[in-house]
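During the reporting period the student researcher (J.K.) took over the structure-prediction task from the postdoctoral fellow and processed the backlog of single-chain submissions. One of the processed entries is reproduced below for the supervisory committee.
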Amino acid sequence: MTSRQPSSNYALFIGLRYSFSRKRNRFTAVIALVSMLGMTLGVTSLITVLSVMNGFAGELRGRILSLVPHGYVESTGGGIEDWKNILITVQSDDNILAASPYISDKAILTGRNGLRGAVLTAIDPAYEIAVSDIGNALTQGSLDTLDQGKFNVVMGAGLARALGVQLGDTIEVTVPRLTVTPLGIFPRSKRLTLSGVFSVGAQLDSYQAYISLAAGQKLLGHKNQVDGVRVKTTDLFEAPRTLSSLSNELPEGYKVTNWSQTQGSLFRAVKMEKLMVSLLLLSVVAVAAFNIVSTLVMSVAEKRSDIAVLRTMGAQAKDIMALFIAHGLGLAVVGVGLGAFIGVLLASYISEITVFVENLFGVKMFDPSVYFISELPSRLMWQDVVVVIATSLILSFIATLYPAWRASQVAPAEVLRYE
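J.K. obtained the following structure tokens:
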């Protein structure tokens, strides 16, 4: 008659019973509770912070790329005279929605409050409105006013505030061009009338200004030329590939750049920051996971007699290992599950919680004039949740292996000799 070996289900049942039994050493129970709470805290923090960083990245991308085009077509030899033909060539691509000519240069603007550096961009409103969201971003005035007056200007709200100007005020603009007169050589300057103010809630508000294409050609000395063509594609994230194929359709002497080249360093920095913060918070999860080691080591010492009895009943070393792996994972699953639930809940309502705390204490955490946002953005991505849960469980599983192996090496004869 062969001895009956405990099944894997039996080992699982005993392991889970060890995890949640009330008849345990008090100190061991406290260590187990701390391990679970540490796991809960780590997983909650990781999911919440990743969601907030996703929210910030989305806000940054949406605000900046609302005015920054998906790509540019420029001449390697300077300005473009036959820009209308280039527009036709560019817009013949099915993956390109619109294109617009532009001239851009740095300038110094003078208002009531002094001087401010700015990027002065000359556009044709009829074309530009299809390429960027400048029309929807206007809070005062209209983009059509650029064509109604030869020297009107539309600028960001932050720039207008810094200059101390309002609609209808006159602004002195000085560009890096020289004017030769009988009295000498002077920087080229012109008086512009503020006819519109836009706000996208990003850095662009503090330095960007627009004038009409005709005014830009006169002021910046381009005559009938433009610097290039701004392009909007059907898919922002496919823009690099779309514009790469477009470069093959253009005549010789033209170069194509996309938003990932002009703004890519900023978004790569955000991505790297998210990775580093994730690794730092993952260390909290790792510490909590390896607290399970101390819990299991003490549990093995406490349950030596139980292990010996099971071995004499026919349990094999692998069954004892499975038992203590189940014991450790039981603690981990509860901690990770609770942390994931709280983390998802917190990430989903973090904006509302921020507003509630602000109203409760009468403080403003995010000043829109400083941070360009009025509340904490959050974007919950389920793939992040899955990765956090899977990584936490894997770390917990690894943490259980050594104590479980030690339990499987307990010699029943030595234990029972002193019982």
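The committee noted the following: The longest helix spans residues 26-64.
J.K. will present the remaining backlog at the next meeting.
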